[in-house]
Amino acid sequence: VLQIATQISVLIAKVARVDCPRQWPELIPTLLESVKVQDDLRQHRALLTFYHVTKTLASKRLAADRKLFYDLASGIYSFACSLWNHHTDTFLQQIYTGDEAAAANSLERTLLSLKVLRKLTVHGFVEPHWSVEVMSFLNAAFERLKQFLECSRSIRPESICRDRLEKTIILFTKVLLDFLDQHPFSFTPLIQRSLEFAVSYVFTEAGEGIVFERFIVQCMNLIKMIVKNYAYKPSKNIEDSSPETLEAHKIKTAFFTYPTLMEKLTMWEEDPEGFTVEETGGDSWKYSLRPCTEVLFIDIFHEYNQTLTPVLLEMVHSLQGSTNMEDTSAILIKDAVYNAVGLAAYELFDSVDFDQWFKNQLLAELQVSHSRYKPIRRRVIWLIGQWISVKFKSDLRPMLYEAIRNLLQDQDLVVRIETATTLKLNILLLQRCSINDFEFRTEQFLPYLESMFTLLFQLLQEVTQCDTKMHVLHVLSCVIERVNMQIRPYVECLVQYLPLLWKQSEEHNMLRCAILTTLIHLVQGLGADSKNLYPFLLPVIQLSTDVSQPPHVYLLEDGLELWLVTLENSPCLTPELLRIFQNMSALLELSSENVKNCFKIINAYIFLSSSEFLQMYASDLCRSFCELLKDITTEGQVQVLKVVENILKVNPVLGPQMFQPLLPSIFRGIIDGERYPVVMSTYLGIMGRVLLQNASFFSLLLSQMACELGQELDQILGNMIEMWVDRMDNITQPERRKLSALALLSLLPSLN
């Protein structure tokens, strides 16, 4: 049974991690002998164990352990290579003769022996380029990989070898990527060959018919890692660069010549469809070529922008004017070139007059309503979104808003969703800036607010997928956040729709998070009028912050923020608002990163209506605070004490009585000279409130402390005053210093 055999192999490897080779010297020789046996099952299990032992020993990081693994690797590397070659030759022979069952067995052994070689090659040598065997294996790997790729072209989709063949091909690329990552200078002799190999499969006819999309992605990763590798980048001062760096840089530069770069960019132009392939079905890996291609393009463009910029600009220039709607190829070419200009926006900052291009060409393209032109309308509005934060004059925004409003009425749903994204980028990016052309001007947007909000709401109702609804909700939230109270006349439709959407999204917690975010901005925009939302709003807060309900795992953070915003905008404390505070005790017990928001919520209740609130919840709150103070950081302690101080500030009569259990420890902290200045300052603030605003209660507390400590009343008071005066410099806030001064002065009229 393979699963049991695997567990036994892992167990042997764990023992080997501790005992091999010193206490268990015979393990490796035994395994090497066992992988030679003719019995298929025993041979496979020996290989499986050999792999797990090698993997475990390779992961050890102490210098002595590394030395042992280096010795092991140099001793068995030759054998591992011959084992791999033997199983590879056997597999290729069997697959060409059509013996699929035998080929599948051999391929499994090829895969395991290659896994062993990967660990030995990457982790078994300090300077692997000095090992003839290692470099021979890596050079041979390219040829072997080509043989396996040829096999993959002819293999049937239902073949039992297909999955293992893909794993083996991907493992070859992982060997190269890992070796490059761990030993960039040892990889230098392989740079030329790796680039030729990867580029041929990604950018030439050699890659046609490759059924494993993930292999193409790995080739792109290989090119990208070589292009971006810091070890291959000389210093600005060439004399400071090592000879190894200069050598690698020379090879890389010699490869990426003008014709080579031109060929890549021309392929992007001539075969745009090949570079806009979305993920293929029937594949568990779900790798998408498009984003990988785009990342590779950005990296190459960044590295060689001086060469590529004029070429790309010439392509753009050649595409200006109208496009033949019947020419699908021309439309795809324009889409690919516009995509490139959007991806390289920051690199092209000084080379493109985007404002002129927007006015003279792009606006007109957005107005072409022909059904075949949908891809370009989508691409152009995306392109504008890419350039908004790079180069776009503020004066042009009304023209952009006009175009967005028109596109939000487009018949193509994807065009409308892409348009909503551009609107979000426009609003979100600009709200973070307040300079020059990047400042968001609300007055420019207001004339379009009603129509855009209505169209976005219609889009929200029309889309059906959860992710898309979240996306559109986020755009609506951004609009509400930016225009704030000026949204009030237009939100009625959304207010009526959100309860229905909340109910429909019972199984989709991430969509509910988006609804909570929208409600936060909605409450802020509506201000005191948000009380009209309470029949829907308060049950939502109740559910989101109830730790006994499973959804709280997703909703709690946003739910607490909504609760706080609701209180901040509430004109008065309603019975329903009071009732949801029942959730707070359990929240305080969590002691999570959300506890700060909990304290803010408690403060909001105190300032809204302290008497009513404290009569209902003071005892629960006091109990929670006592528990919290037993096991909390200094910062958390200060947060709790500040809430107590606020209670005493707004309710000096009831406050000290209700939170009396907390006061003795605070009194003791003052007398003992609490060592943390910020905690001491808060202690003095609380005691100052009691002394100044409720002298009779302070006298009772003083008597209680004298009793507990077995000291005279005057002695206790004297100790406290002495420490208080001594620690006045701990108090940095002027308001607190004033409070302490007044509190101490209030003692002077007494007869003591």
UniProtKB/TrEMBL annotation:
It is found in: Cytoplasm; Nucleus. Residues 513-749 form the Importin-7/11-like TPR repeats domain. SUPFAM superfamilies: ARM repeat. Its main location: cytoplasm. GO terms for biological process: protein import into nucleus. InterPro entries: ARM-like, ARM-type_fold, TPR_IPO7/11-like. PANTHER family: IMPORTIN-11, IMPORTIN-7, 8, 11. This is Importin-11. It comes from Tauraco erythrolophus.
